[in-house]
Design brief:
The structure holds two protein chains of two kinds. Helices cover 82% and strands 0% of the residues of chain A. By secondary structure, chain B is an alpha/beta fold. Chain B has a domain of 154 residues: Rossmann fold. In chain B, α3 crosses α4. The longest helix of chain B has 14 residues. Classes of the chains: A mainly alpha, B alpha/beta. Chains A and B meet through α7, α8 and α11 of A and α4 of B.
């Protein structure tokens, strides 16, 4: 562990990795809180994987994979959102279909791209140790956008996440807000995939907020605690992985998942000891 | 303007289908200002659908719905609504006060924050429904009856002229039911109320009028609920029990 801190003082790639962890934790702590309380982590997973299709097509056409990913993410967010709002039935099947066909599309297009071999592993697990300075600025910009959107729309978003029917009765544009929220989730996923990889994005979106949910009683404190936990997991994971030279992203994920299991057991035990006098169904 | 002076809700030959299943058929109904209307009928008889039409959450396939003399959607701001059961996940991180504050959300304004006035109103509504002491508790630490009173407070925070209640005592112990209806009777002094119930005998002590709904509107005067009407509504296996008011 000591050698990590010595290296941190000297190596700029490690400093970048820690900063990337901080910036990713802010985005994931805020957006992940909505993902967890609205129970849409499967939906976020679907958006994240469908991104592969957009990237593959972009490689094939010689365009920017980032733009391809962004377009694919927003399109699948809107498809899933519109189906949920207007069609209602079986959105889970649709998410599964988008999830699988997005990845399949990506692989087919990449295989047909002449003279270019893309390492798919790097999109799945990313490499937080190879973050470029440009990426850090991009992430910082995204964090500003997310914090701004939530600061302005905290109450309406809360109302839509909590009880859409009541929010609609109070005259809020519920469908618009819901789709906007899904698009912000898509944007977050796309930007972070570049940096930390698809699997770490899903882990950071869901695990810190799910753990925080065991301890807090308001959405804003959930966001704050989830962000802090994300910070803890990314920095501790980096430090743990450095000595034995383990993959950093995978170490962070397993650390977060381990804490989630322990916290779930702890909170289940606490709940069974202090159940209210007349528990609700 | 006196009580019952004008109609606040007018259904004119309204029909509604859910997918291809008819739910409401040719309903004509007027509700008067200040009225306390009970809405009874079997499950699937269209009671909740009728409330949704009033709230403008759905539109009729035929006929017209007018609320406060205008299209239902435009009158939403004057309505308060209490759902049958909480539709939100019980582990949502939110306090009782924050839940009630949602009643203060205003139509059409997107960038809104709650003001000190909103908070005072929320506290007042919690006091009125008798759950002020739980204001700072997370909602997952309430009993069914307490949560129901919080949802009534949320509806009151909209300062409605018409309160819509969908089986408000479904999750309340029967000995608390009277307390909840006494509260409605008190609220009825300043607002009109429509309440869905399937306990005809109980609500007739409180409401001005009962409407019986099973796709069609069978009857809407309390005195004409005869065993025949009940049989027509629920089928032949219901035995009429004569209620002598409050005799035990």
């Amino acid at each position: 562990m000591m050698e990590f801190f010595t290296a941190l003082a000297e190596q700029s790639f490690l400093q970048s990795a820690v900063i990337a962890g901080v910036l990713a934790s802010i985005a994931c702590g805020l957006i992940g809180s909505y993902v967890v309380v609205m129970r849409i982590s499967y939906l976020a997973g679907g958006i994240a994987h469908s991104v592969m299709g957009g990237m593959g097509i972009a490689y094939f056409l010689g365009g920017s994979p980032f733009v391809g990913a962004l377009i694919a993410a927003v399109i699948s967010a809107l498809i899933i959102g519109l189906v949920k709002l207007y069609w209602q039935a079986r959105e889970d099947t649709l998410i599964g279909a988008l999830w699988a066909s997005g990845m399949a599309l990506g692989i087919i297009f990449i295989s047909q791209t002449p003279g270019y071999q893309v390492d798919l592993m790097s999109y799945l697990f990313g490499n937080i140790l190879l973050v470029a300075e440009d990426d850090l600025w991009l992430m910082a910009g995204m964090d500003v956008v997310i914090v701004g959107a939530i600061a302005l729309l905290y109450r309406p978003f809360q109302a839509v996440a909590f009880d859409p029917e009541f929010a609609r009765l109070r005259g809020l544009p519920v469908n618009l807000l819901y789709l906007l929220l899904l698009c912000i989730v898509a944007l977050t996923v796309v930007l972070l995939i570049q940096v930390v990889g698809l699997i770490l994005v899903i882990a950071l979106l869901t695990l810190p907020a799910a753990i925080a949910g065991h301890y807090v009683r308001t959405l804003s404190s959930l966001m704050a605690l989830a962000t802090l936990l994300g910070l803890g997991f990314t920095s501790t994971g980096l430090a743990l992985s450095y000595g034995p030279d383990l993959p950093a992203g995978a170490t962070i994920i397993l650390l977060a998942a381990g804490c989630f299991v322990i916290s779930s057991l702890f909170s289940a035990r606490k709940k069974s000891m202090q159940s209210p006098e007349t528990p609700r169904k | 303007m006196g009580r019952f002076a004008k109609n606040i809700i007018e259904f004119d030959r309204v029909s509604f289908r859910y997918q291809s299943v008819p739910v409401l058929d040719n309903i004509t109904l007027a509700v008067r200002e200040g009225e306390f209307l009970g809405l009874v009928g079997p499950n699937g008889g269209g009671k909740s659908t009728l409330l949704k039409l009033i709230m403008g959450l759905i539109t009729p396939d035929a006929g017209t719905v007018k609320v406060f003399g205008t299209a239902a959607k435009k009158a939403r701001a004057r309505l308060g609504y209490v759902p049958q059961f909480a539709r939100f996940p019980s582990d949502f991180p939110i306090t009782v006060e924050e839940t009630v504050l949602m009643g203060c959300l205003n139509p059409g304004r997107l960038l809104q924050r709650y003001t000190q006035k909103d908070r005072e109103l929320a506290r007042k509504c919690l006091k009125e429904t008798g759950v002020a002491e739980f204001a700072d508790r997370p909602i997952d630490q309430l009993s069914g009856g307490q949560l129901q009173r919080v949802l009534i407070a949320r509806a009151l925070a909209s300062e409605p002229d018409l309160l819509l209640l969908d089986e408000p005592t479904a999750s309340v112990d029967s000995h608390q039911e009277k307390g909840v209806f006494d509260l409605f009777k008190e609220l009825n002094k300043r607002m009109s109320i429509i309440v869905i119930s399937h306990d005809i005998g109980f609500i007739t002590d409180y409401v001005d009028r009962v409407a019986c709904l099973n796709k069609e509107l069978l009857c809407h005067e309390t005195h004409c609920i005869t065993p025949d009407v009940i049989e027509q509504m629920y089928g032949g296996h219901v035995h009429a029990i004569h209620h002598h008011s409050h005799a035990i």
